[in-house]
Structures are given as structure tokens and as C-alpha cells.
Amino acid sequence: MNDNTMISFENASKSYGALQVLRNLNFHVDPGEKISLIGPSGSGKTTILRILMTLESLTSGYVLVDGQQLWHEEKQGQLVPASEKHLQNVRADIGMVFQHFNLFPHLSVLKNVTEPQRISRGVAAPEAKEAAVELLEMVGLGDKLDHYPGQLSGGQKQRVAIARALALKPRIMLFDEPTSALDPELVSEVLNVMRKLAHETDMTMLLVTHEMSFAREFSDRVIFFDKGVIVEQGAPEQIFQNPCEERTRNFLHKFIA
Amino acid sequence: MDILVEFSPVLVKGTWTTIILTLGGSAVALTMAFITGLTRLSRRLYLRAVATIYLEIFRGTSALVQLFWIFFVLPFLGVTLEPMTAGIMAIGLNMGSYGSEVVRGAVLSVDRGQREACAALNYTRFQTMRYVILPQAIPVMLPTFGNQGIELLKLTSVVSLITISDLTFSAQLVRTASGLTLEPFMAILIIYFILSSCIVQFVKLLEKRMAKGRGLPAGKGAV
Ligand SMILES: Nc1ncnc2c1ncn2[C@@H]1O[C@H](COP(=O)(O)OP(=O)(O)OP(=O)(O)O)[C@@H](O)[C@H]1O
Ligand SMILES: [Mg+2]
Residue A22: nearest ligand to its CA? Predict the structure, then answer.
């Protein structure tokens, strides 16, 4: 492993009871890299993001974030399962955008973005507000500050959710099918924001998506999963135009048809 | 009617006693409801066990028996309480056991995605509960708490059995002293009704205040 790796999965496996979802997974992500994870339903894409976000534990193997063990910590020279505190330290660098937004319905749009800054970073109120307004304007919602999530369209909710995650200045952003719960006409407003992020920031980004054309322009590298293993990975042009593997080809065919 | 006016100080005193019992009992009940309800969701088995034992004992036996234990049996164990204190404790502990299930249910009703969002925003477990789960769970609890408040008010009349002259008992006093039956019982019927209406109005007010400025009601589709 080189020192300049942002995320590493090393022999990582995950099982739910008898069902093995990830099998001895090995992959590395460089700082600033934009990666798309594609693959059939149930192949384990969401699980990878959830393990990184500490929403799901690892069954065996290791995950490192910026060289630090995520699910383990060192105690007296031994690697032991991570404590809640250790998880909190490491995941401070990671933000996530969910398929179903998960905004806080009891808070206004503005508060959705300011409160997490205050609570988890201790940012003072005026600075938090300034940052929130700037981010909400960036995602095109500067006129909705006092609205509540229940008053927004799906596309607007997802843009608030992106602003909320960005407000904590994560170095890694995870997106789990951010547009798949949206009406088709609302997809592009969210993709536009993500396109902008991909071009203008040096955040490391992992995107799980079924939007193949977006994956192609968004990512530096595409990883194709099936049944918990990496079948093939490479530059988007190679994966989409010249897939080496039969399974990749079959999978992509369904999207063209 | 004149006779009733003559005896009205007795009824006023009884009403006041019932109000104190209701307020004190509610305070104890709410405290126990939150402590027990949240403890039963703890990750620690022994905490859950203690909370569950309290819940089952106080839900599974009658308030009257609990009152007798607190007032008559505890002194043998070296704990002697004033009648009012014993009454408030018995009523509060009894209703608190039911309330804890309301708290637990409301907390569990908050969408799992909310907790996941909190983890992604790096909230601690306490911060998650304090800033995200409870603010959404409390409005869910309110209507049931309103009903339980009325139950609690009605329950307060058991304390006459440990020498307290609450509203119900004062009607008995008036009846014995005046020889009237219909009038004192009509009077307390109306007073109880007014007191329970106050509880209903108070809860309605709280519900309104909490709903204010939250936009559309939560729970309609993904947020
Ligand atoms: N909490 C859970 N308990 C049991 N099985 C689970 C759980 N979460 C996920 N799984 C299973 O793990 C497998 C991988 O799930 P995952 O959500 O990672 O797939 P995915 O690649 O994201 O699929 P999709 O494209 O449908 O979102 C699936 O078979 C799923 O049913
Ligand atoms: Mg998924």
C-alpha cells in the first residue's frame, strides 16, 4: 500500500448471517479520485459505502481511511475492534448523501445545514450561517432558506442534503444512488451540482449509480461489481466501450437496450 | 344550594389537593417515562433489565396496592413518607410505567434514516437523541400523554385511602356533614370535567406550538 492512498479495502468481507455480501475485497482509492461503483442489484455497492460511513460493521479484513484503520484501532501493539470514539474520529472526514435524502424534517433548510456544523464541529453560529447560505446558494436554493423539507421537491431535498454534507468539509464524499428516488425531470438539477463538485473540488468521491452516462463523465475510474467481488475496473472509456469481461458487457447491454 | 356554598371551602381545598396530586404525579410519571423508555433502548443488557423489571412490576400491579406498599410497608423498611408524597410517588410511578412504553414506541417510530444521517454527520449517540430523535418523537408522544394525563387525574382519588382529603373524598365529607347527596356529587363531577378539559386544552396548545413552522406534517414520503 502506498502512503498516498485515501481509502483501502484489504481482504474486506461482509456477511449477513449465512449471506456473504462482500468477498475478500481489495481496492484502493487515491486522494481526489472520483469513482463510480456500478453493478447489478444486490452486488454489494451500497454495503461498501455503508461500511465506510460506519453504518455497517466489517465481518473480516481491514478498511483504511487516509492511512488510519477504520474498523480497528491499535491497543498495546494489537489491532482490536474500534471503539465508538475511534469510529467517530475517523469518520469525521467522511460525508454521505443518501438515496432517500434523510433530511431533518423538524428543521428549516437553513437549520439543516447550520445545526450539524454547530453540533459536530462546534462552529460558531454566525460562521455556520455564512457557510450554510453560501453552500445553499451554490446548490441553487438560496431562496428556500426558511422552507421546511416537507415543502421541497425531491430534487431540492437532495440538493439540501448535499449542502448539509459539504458543510462539514469532508475529504471523502459518498453518494448512494443520489438520483434514483427522483422523478426523471428532477434528476439533472442534482447531477449538475455533482458535476460541479467533481470539477471544482479535490474531494475524493465514491458514487454508486445506475446513471451510466453520468458515471462516464463524472468518474476517473469505474468499478464493476457482481456478487460481492470486483469483476473489472478501469477508465470509464475502457469499461463502457471495451469491457474485457463477459459479465460487464452483459450488464451494460441492459442499459443500452 | 346555600348549604353547598357553606361547604364550598371543603370542596375548594379538595380540588386544590387533587390539582397538586395531578401535577406532582405527572412530573414523576414523565420523569420515569423518559428514563425508563430510553433505558429500555439502551445497548447495555443490565440497564435494560432494570428498566424492564420496573415497568413490569408497576404495570402489572394496581396503583392501590402500590400506594399501600409505599405508605404502609415502606416504613417497616425504614422509609416513612408524608401522605401527599406517598400519593404522588404511587401515582407517578404507576403512570410512568405506561408512559415509558409511549416514549419507547415514539422513539422507535422515527425513521432509521434519521439515525444514519446523524452518524454520517458524526453526531454522538447523545447528540442524535437530543437534537434529532426526541424533537421528532415528542410530538408523536403528545396525544397519548394527553390521554394518560386524564387517566392520572382520575387515578388521584385512590389517595383518600391513605388519609388524604382529595376532591372525591371532600364530596363524601360534604355529604356526611350536610345530608345532601346529589349536590356535592354533581359539583365534583363538574370540577373533574373542568380539570380534564384543562389537560386537553394544554396538550392541544403544546401540539400546536410544536407543529408551528414545521411545514407539512412529517412522515409523508422521504425527507
Ligand atoms: N441489513 C441487512 N440484512 C441482511 N441482508 C442485507 C442487509 N443489507 C443488505 N443485505 C443484502 O446484502 C446484499 C447486498 O446489498 P447492497 O444493498 O449492498 O446491494 P446494492 O449493490 O447496493 O444493490 P442495489 O443496486 O439494489 O441498491 C443484498 O443481497 C441485500 O439483500
Ligand atoms: Mg444499493
Answer: 1
Q: Which of B42, B46, B61 is nearest to B103 (CA)?
A: B42
Cα A62 to ligand 1 centroid, rounded to whole Å: 20
Distance CA B164, CA B185 (A): 18
* Entry pTM: 0.90
Q: Provide the pLDDT for residue B214.
A: 64
Closest residue (by CA) to atom 26 of ligand 1? A41
Q: How far apart are CA A1 and CA A36, in angstroms?
A: 21
Ligand 1 atom at shortest distance from the alpha carbon of A210: 25
Set of cell numbers at residue A202: 479535490
pLDDT of A2 above 80: no
**Cβ atoms B111, B133 nearer than 8 A:** no
Tell whether A228 lies on the interface with B, counting CB pairs under 8 A: no
Long-range contacts of B5-12, Cβ-Cβ distance < 8 Å, separation of 24 or more: B6/B178, B7/B173, B7/B174, B7/B177, B7/B178, B7/B184, B10/B165, B10/B170, B10/B173, B10/B174, B11/B167, B11/B170, B11/B171, B11/B174, B11/B184, B11/B187, B11/B188, B11/B191
Nearest one of A186, A231, A181 to A210, comparing CA atoms: A181
**Residues in chain B with pLDDT < 50?**
216-220
Q: Is the CB of A248 under 6 A from ligand 1?
A: no
Please name the residue whose Cα sits nearest to atom 7 of ligand 1: A16
Give me the residue label for grid cell 433505558: B39
pLDDT for the residue numbered B7: 84
Asked whether residue A188 carries a pLDDT value surpassing 80, the answer given is yes
- Write down the ipTM of this complex: 0.93
Put simply, the answer to whether A102 touches B111 (Cβ < 8 Å) is yes
Q: Measuring CA to CA, how many Å separate A212 from each of A199, A241, B134?
A: 18, 12, 40
Closest ligand 1 atom number to CA of residue A43: 21
Of A55, A116, A165, the CB nearest to B116: A55
- pLDDT bin (cut points 50, 70, 90) of residue A3 is low
Give mean pLDDT, residues A150-176: 97
Looking at A57-176, which runs of residues are DSSP E strands? 60-65, 68-69, 72-75, 78-81, 94-97, 172-176
CA distance B85 to chain A (A): 38
Pairing state between β A72-75 and A34-38 = unpaired
What is d(CA A232, CA A248) in angstroms, rounded to the nearest whole number?
Answer: 7
pLDDT for position B222: 65
> Measured from the CA of A17, which atom of ligand 1 is nearest?
4
